[in-house]
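In response to the reviewer comment on reproducibility (Comment 2.3), we provide here a single inverse folding case reported in full, input and output, so that an independent group could reproduce the run without further information from us. The structure tokens appear first.
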């Protein structure tokens, strides 16, 4: 009987700078046979040689991941493993022991970013199931289904529809939580389950929005328009400052990661002795 294959699906965007880094990390830490599937979103991105299967696609990340999974499910066996891995996510150790323990408990294992104002849904930066499970679920990374975020009310985000499919089919799943301290940022530069790093350097998440400047107190009606304009300016200035600081930290950490070696995880507070968070 043929050995079970691991299919790794990544939806790459307009930058190729993580490709070699991720390839190196996978080669270092994954010892089972695997195929890398790449969704290449930008015309002219000459990265097809990095992948065993490269598919040119357009559109939002969720749609590209869904289509990539469709292509994998067409080719793969039902008992093969399907791993979603963000382009800037890297294994820090062999993830197979964590995957095997997780899938022994439930059909799907995924990162859950509860640090992002209580996100309850699976996140595709790192998610593993079997191909058969994904087919049966009709897995869908789209947003749409609303869930409650304690600080910002009812929202939806990447992975929300997958959460609802799991709920409707009463399918349990195992969540990998953050295991390193928020040394540089409350959301970015995270290690999950002690085995996978997700850089995600500059996006403004909901947890960041909780610190945004609050609207100015209501005043006389003639001033309402002026106050609204001032609120927009204050918010824009806050966003620009946050993005500048995030970009600076992101570049500093990226340079350390790109240089290679085993010391960079300590920069984000990762302890190699951290037990798997499942």
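Designed residues, in position order:
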């Amino acid at each position: 009987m043929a050995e079970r294959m691991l299919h790794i699906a990544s939806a790459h965007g307009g930058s190729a700078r993580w490709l070699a880094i991720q390839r190196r990390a996978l080669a270092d830490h994954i010892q089972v046979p695997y195929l890398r599937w790449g969704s290449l979103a930008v015309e002219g991105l000459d990265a097809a040689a990095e992948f065993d299967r490269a598919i040119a696609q357009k559109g939002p990340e969720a749609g590209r991941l869904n289509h990539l999974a469709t292509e994998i499910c067409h080719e793969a066996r039902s008992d093969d493993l399907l791993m979603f891995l963000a382009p800037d996510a890297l294994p820090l150790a062999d993830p197979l022991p964590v995957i095997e323990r997780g899938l022994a408990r439930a059909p799907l294992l995924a990162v859950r970013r509860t640090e992002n104002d209580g996100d309850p849904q699976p996140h595709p930066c790192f998610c593993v199931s079997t191909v058969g499970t994904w087919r049966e679920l009709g897995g869908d990374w789209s947003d749409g289904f609303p869930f409650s975020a304690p600080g910002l009310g009812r929202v939806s985000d990447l992975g929300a529809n997958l959460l609802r499919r799991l709920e409707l089919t009463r399918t349990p799943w195992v969540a990998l939580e953050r295991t390193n301290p928020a040394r540089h940022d409350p959301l970015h530069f995270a290690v999950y389950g002690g085995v996978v790093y997700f850089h995600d350097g500059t996006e403004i998440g909901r947890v960041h929005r909780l610190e945004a400047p609050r609207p100015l107190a209501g005043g006389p009606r003639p001033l309402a328009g002026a106050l609204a304009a001032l609120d927009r300016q204050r918010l824009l200035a806050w966003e620009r400052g946050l993005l500048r600081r995030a970009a600076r930290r992101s570049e500093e950490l990226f340079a350390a990661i790109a240089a290679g070696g085993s010391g960079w995880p300590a920069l984000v507070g990762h302890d190699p002795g951290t037990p798997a968070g499942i």
